[in-house]
């Protein structure tokens, strides 16, 4: 594999509870199921992706994304956990201390938003996909994710009238980040908990298209299987591989492979 071939996808939206972690976790599982080597980087202080994918509790992990951002390259091998609950999915854990990491980066790093990008250079070519779960803010952690990524995807909760709250801020933020990372491509908005029969969902869909400018064709339906999978620390394909929501994530993985190639 050449250096160019690793696709790094930030899943970003500074609104909480819009399905970022769910998207990262199940997209990772489906990409791996299709034969790709996947790494998940958890940049969210809540560390929910780590709780789902990881074999250990994030508080027991010595080298997390927080240490990696502040430390030097030698920490990369310590941070990489290849054994997880998901086949062919590696993990760099998130940590509660990530909140403090932002302040330290501001004070200590010469280029605070490019620390992750520098660290990930070494991983290019080792993974087909690196998925980054961003925190619900547009501060330095999200900036680091976007500065390091080849692509960005914006999950939007379709059934909620607040689903689009602040999306224009994110789109404006992308144009700032492109000064550092001109290669960053927008994959589009991903509609979560979407039901085409509901008027509110149709309205959100049209509004998302006009605000973000691009929609992923695949939409993710509402399902209790998502919570079940999180409790069991399993991918959806391990919980109920024929469920509608699992098929949707499988379709999403295929669509993303087609879009990034």
TrEMBL record:
Domain of life: Bacteria
Residue ranges occupied by any AAA domain in the UniProt entry: 6-185
Pfam families: AAA_31
InterPro entries: AAA_dom (IPR025669), DNA_Partitioning_ATPase (IPR050678), P-loop_NTPase (IPR027417)
PANTHER family for this protein: P-LOOP CONTAINING NUCLEOSIDE TRIPHOSPHATE HYDROLASE, PLASMID PARTITION PROTEIN A
Family (UniProt): To B.subtilis soj.
Protein's name according to its UniProt entry: AAA family ATPase
